[in-house]
Amino acid sequence: MSIREQMEEMEFKMLSPYASFSRNTRGRDRKEELCDIRPEYQRDRDRIIHCKSFRRLKHKTQVFLAPEGDHYRTRLTHTLEVSQIARTIAKSLSLNESLTEAIALGHDLGHTPFGHSGEYVLNKVFEDGFSHYRQSVRVVEVLEKNGQGLNLTWEVRDGILNHRTSGHPSTLEGAIVRLSDKIAYINHDIDDAIRARIFREKDLPAEYTRVLGESVRDRLNNMIHDIINSSLGKPEIIMSPDMELAMRGLRQWMFENVYSGSVAKTEEKKAQQLIESLFEYYMRHEDRLPEEYLRMMAERGEKKGRVVCDYIAGMSDQYAIEKFQELFVPKAWKQV
């Protein structure tokens, strides 16, 4: 019996009957030889960690565009915090930790430069629309490995697609990531906003902090414990009604006070104009796209607008700025 088979047997002995067992995966689009060491969801996690799109997350905005300081979250640190929270919940509920981690690490791979500002613009200018959760699936199915994709299992792709607020993941592990994403960004965005002196802890509405906790640490602890206690031994991942209501209220308060119109968004219009300018340029000059994107149109019959979105969405913040400067900002001339 291989190490992988031993680990699969251990899952049946140790995990909840509601867990997603590696041996029972619905599989991959392209059949592959099984690994002798790693179960399938562990392989998916490893593929995501080693892919280019994952590495680029370190240079993509979470909330604060081009912040001065080393301690503000990026899309990568957000992803790692989601993973840590989700793994804690999954392990406590005896669910599949590897599947949970793979979904968490892959959930934002398709995010644009400049956070949701970039997503908003691409959705506006491309006729077929754009959303980061669908783009994340496109990254792992199509764009990585020069058009081959990562060939991930169905369960991981389902969890990535359905991590959004309106999503309905097919596995409990996916449902954990969906909630962990919100827990992570609400709390770390509060932490970053306090660091940026947008508001103080005591400015948060007491009707929510009385339930959730009066510090980032307490809120994380209370929300995680609440999910575990509410979901233990059940075929669903839920929060208690009071905790869920308070979390939704605080999330809405953050939208009104940080995500819209705050000092964190002072450069947002510039970033949106930059993204729109790049889109319009490459729609007129598709010959300036990298070769791999031209092949996607020629060999796969992909729409030009979709491929332009792929290229722009894959950019880091700084690379997008550099391309804009290269294309639209005059350079000083001197005689040689």
Tell me what you see in this structure.
This protein has about 325 residues and is mainly alpha-helical. It has a single domain, classed as Hypothetical protein af1432, CATH 1.10.3210.10. The protein is about 60% helix and about 0% strand. Helix 4 packs antiparallel against helix 5 (about 95-105) and helix 9 packs antiparallel against helix 11 (about 215-230). The protein starts with a helix and ends in an 8-residue tail after the last helix. The model has no long low-confidence stretch (mean pLDDT about 95).
Helical content stands at 55-70%
Structural class by secondary-structure content: mainly alpha
Poorly predicted regions: none
Q: Beta-strand level of the residues, as a percent range?
A: under 5%
Task: Describe how the helices and strands are arranged.
Layout: H1 3-14, H2 40-49, H3 52-56, H4 75-92, H5 97-106, H6 115-125, H7 132-147, H8 154-161, H9 172-195, H10 206-212, H11 216-231, H12 241-259, H13 268-284, H14 291-300, H15 304-313, H16 317-328
Helix pairs in contact: 2-5, 4-5, 4-9, 4-11, 5-8, 5-9, 6-13, 7-8, 8-9, 9-11, 9-12, 10-12, 13-15, 13-16, 14-15
Summed up, what is this model?
By secondary structure, the protein is mostly helical.
Features:
mainly alpha; Hypothetical protein af1432; 336 residues; flat
